[in-house]
């Protein structure tokens, strides 16, 4: 694949760390990689954002790009409107991703929140970006209660739009998983309609870049360049 869109079933569930892990494995395989963040919210100018975190973990030889930054931690369209700034439209995101794809082997587009969070006031979403690009979506989900419903809804939304799913990754697998988390490993593929292709342990984002890159192959399956297996 040339472009892979990374979305979540919600927010603060490990999308950035999963994006960094995919980027790290691609770089280890000798591929050139770019990471595109269409809309960074909740971060002031000059502060460390998601793209900077991906580069810290995956390596500074990854190309990072951010189209817009809005100060309040809200949905991109709401954050843009409240800041009096121009929202990012799906066509702009697709154009930026295509330009990066012309110069890189893999472009990772990391969304904000879930698949249908609005980018602009016209209703444009990350799903529209994936559709314009003809790109598959990697779905990041939490481990515990509630994740089956969220994964099912996301999978249904993708299928309704004719968008391929590249699989499901648990973005923060607990050190001591409870019963619901353990059962969800078996149930997530059926609920989402897509295979489970990785478990990233909680705290992975706190590792040094070198330790993160060394451990990443054990978190993601062969579909994403790793050797993880359920």
Describe this structure in words.
The protein has about 230 residues and is of the alpha/beta class. The protein is built from 8 helices and 7 strands, in the order E-H-E-H-E-H-H-E-H-E-H-E-H-E-H. It has helices spanning about 15-30, 50-60, 75-85, 90-100, 125-135, 145-160, 180-190, 210-215, and strands at about 5-10, 35-40, 65-70, 105-115, 135-140, 165-175, 195-200. It has a 7-stranded parallel β-sheet with strand order 3-2-4-1-5-6-7, sandwiched between helices. Strand 2 (about 35-40), helix 2 and strand 3 form a beta-alpha-beta unit. The longest helix has 14 residues, at about 15-30. The mean pLDDT is about 95. It is found in: Cytoplasm.
Order of helices and strands: EHEHEHHEHEHEHEH
Query: Major β-sheet, in short?
Result: 7 strands, parallel
Overall radius of gyration: 16 Å
What value does the average pLDDT take?
97
Kindly report the oligomeric state of this protein.
single chain
- Given the C-alpha coordinates, what overall shape results? globular
Which range does the strand content fall in? 15-25%
Question: In terms of per-residue confidence, which ranges show pLDDT below 50 for 5 or more consecutive residues?
Answer: none
Q: How many helices?
A: 8
Structural class: alpha/beta
The spatial strand order of the largest sheet comes to 3-2-4-1-5-6-7
Determine the fraction of residues in helical runs and give it as a percent range. Answer: 25-40%
Number of strands: 7
Subcellular location: Cytoplasm
Binding site for substrate: 41
Pathway: Cofactor biosynthesis; biotin biosynthesis; biotin from 7,8-diaminononanoate: step 1/2
Catalytic activity: (7R,8S)-7,8-diammoniononanoate + CO2 + ATP = (4R,5S)-dethiobiotin + ADP + phosphate + 3 H(+)
């Amino acid at each position: 694949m040339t472009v892979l869109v990374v979305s979540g079933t919600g927010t603060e569930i490990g999308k950035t760390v999963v994006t960094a892990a995919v980027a790290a494995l691609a770089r280890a395989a000798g591929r050139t990689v770019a990471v595109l963040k269409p809309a960074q919210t909740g971060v002031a100018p000059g502060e460390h954002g998601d793209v900077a975190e991906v580069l810290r973990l995956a390596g500074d030889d990854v190309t990072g790009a951010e189209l817009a930054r809005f100060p309040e931690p809200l949905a991109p369209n709401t954050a843009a409107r409240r800041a009096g700034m121009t929202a990012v439209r799906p066509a702009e995101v697709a154009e930026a991703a295509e330009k990066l794809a012309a110069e890189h082997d893999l472009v990772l587009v990391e969304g904000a929140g879930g698949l249908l969070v609005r980018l602009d006031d016209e209703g444009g979403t990350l799903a529209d970006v994936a559709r314009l690009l003809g790109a598959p979506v990697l779905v990041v989900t939490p481990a515990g209660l509630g994740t089956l419903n969220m994964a099912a809804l996301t999978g249904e939304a993708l299928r309704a739009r004719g968008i391929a799913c590249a699989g499901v990754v648990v973005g923060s697998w607990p050190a001591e998983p409870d019963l619901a988390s353990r059962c969800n490993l078996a149930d997530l593929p059926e609920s989402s309609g897509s295979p489970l292709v990785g478990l990233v342990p909680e705290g992975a984002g706190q590792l040094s870049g070198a330790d993160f890159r060394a451990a990443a192959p054990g978190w993601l399956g062969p579909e994403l360049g790793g050797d993880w297996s359920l």
